[in-house]
Specification:
By secondary structure, this protein is of the alpha+beta class. It is about 20% helix and about 25% strand. It is built from seven helices and eleven strands. The model is unreliable at about 1-50 (pLDDT under 50).
């Protein structure tokens, strides 16, 4: 014979408060394991075990997943979504079978920082640090004796600018006597390798010999130098053209020296040749 007990009636007759108690535990005295097997498929049990509730049994029965010591139904714990209600949940014996155990939140991944850009390297600035060869009484000239392309400066400091430009192959000082009869440098000319000059980004200066223009100096942070074009004497030069340039297209090559016929008024200082 199977006996049934209605626990709710027992509690009501005893005058006990049935609020927040597991009153639906009324059940026949039968094998709960066989009932669980009949009503719950293996797939359902697996899903219940995998799901994580913040409110759960303090101790769980292995047979049916309900609470033990204190007893209670796991689903009555699962329905609570805040700590206070979870921990105040009571069974029919006014015991608290539930505990608050929310899942540990996944740590927020740190954002991947943008890669640090490689610093832009400073452009390599050419500077000649070697010695010049002094050739007294000579002008610096092209290696095949053709007329060289030169840039004149109205002062005596050609070396500073020749040091700054790789296309400068040397410089020629022009000397004159002062009132004391001493020879002093009054002007000078940079001797140019035309191919290297164009490869460095310079355009060919338009105009006759003697035309003034500005040349950028890389060693002086954007400053410009006033220079004078010298490409050979031309008596019928049309301003604004370069059709009369004797030196255009000539090749400096290995360089050479041109003897000065005016009593040593010129000195050539050659760079590496």
């Amino acid at each position: 014979m199977v006996l049934f007990f209605n626990l709710q009636d027992v509690a009501a007759k005893a005058g006990k408060d049935t609020c927040h108690t597991d009153l639906d535990i009324a059940m026949p005295v039968v094998d709960t394991h066989s009932v669980l097997q009949a009503k719950t498929s293996p797939k359902q049990v697996s899903a219940t075990e995998v799901q994580h509730y913040p409110c759960k049994c303090k101790n769980t029965k292995e047979s049916n997943g309900n609470c033990k010591e204190p007893a209670g139904k796991a689903k009555n714990c699962h329905k609570h979504t805040n700590r206070k209600d979870c921990e105040n949940r009571k069974n029919k014996l006014l015991q608290r079978p539930c505990k608050w155990d929310p899942p540990t939140p996944e740590p927020t991944p740190k954002p991947t920082p943008d890669p640090t850009p490689e610093p832009t390297p400073e452009p390599t600035v050419y500077h000649y640090n070697d010695l010049y060869t002094e050739n007294l009484g000579h002008k610096c000239w092209n290696g095949d004796d053709s007329w060289p392309f030169t840039l004149g400066l109205w002062h005596n400091d050609c070396k500073t600018y020749c040091d700054a430009f790789a296309w400068c192959k040397g410089y020629t000082d022009h000397l004159m006597e002062n009132k004391n009869g001493d020879l002093v440098v009054v002007t000078c000319e940079l001797v140019v390798d035309q191919n290297m000059y164009v490869e460095a980004g310079n355009s060919w200066p338009i105009g006759c010999s003697g035309t003034d223009f500005k040349l950028k100096d890389p060693s002086m942070h954007g400053l410009e130098v006033d220079v004078k074009k010298n490409c050979g004497v031309c008596h019928n030069c049309n301003k604004g053209t370069d059709t009369c340039d004797k030196c255009k297209g000539t090749v400096f090559g290995t360089g050479s020296l041109k003897k000065d016929a005016s009593d040593n008024k010129y000195n050539c200082y050659s760079k590496g040749w």
